Amino acid sequence: MDEETESIYYANNTDTSVHIIAKTQYADTIMPCIFSENVHRTSVSPHSERDALIDFDFLNNTDTITLFIIKKDDVLNYSWKEIADNSMFLSIYILSKNDILLLSETKFNKTIPYPPTWKMRNMKIYTPKNR
After folding, report:
1. Which of 44, 62, 83, 94 is close enough to 88 for a disulfide, judged by CB 3.0 to 4.6 Å?
2. Is the pLDDT higher at 90 or at 103?
3. DSSP states along 52-109
């Protein structure tokens, strides 16, 4: 990606590797997301920032992005059906373009952190009760 591309980065501020599934538009369940188009999947190492990114253009045709954040070990050890049926998500973010812009460090770099920060307190973020 060139320097002029607006990018969305993920920051994992935990001791565990996480797997992130990003879907344009609102998605209330992960199952259709796994096999659909316009999905971005990546893993992010513990305590790493900006090692996984997507173009902000990913949001061109929508105002919303849904992020499913799952332990990488769970992705490796369980089926998607088990993950969905047992709500094995660390968190689900439903973010608007404006939410992402609020997280901007610079014009070209927007970082979405896990776990959520105080700056994200009014954003739509769900954490299953079993987590």
Report:
1. 83
2. 90
3. EEEEGGGGTT-SEEEEEEEEHHHHHHS-HHHHHHTT-EEEEEEEEHHHHHHTBSSSSE
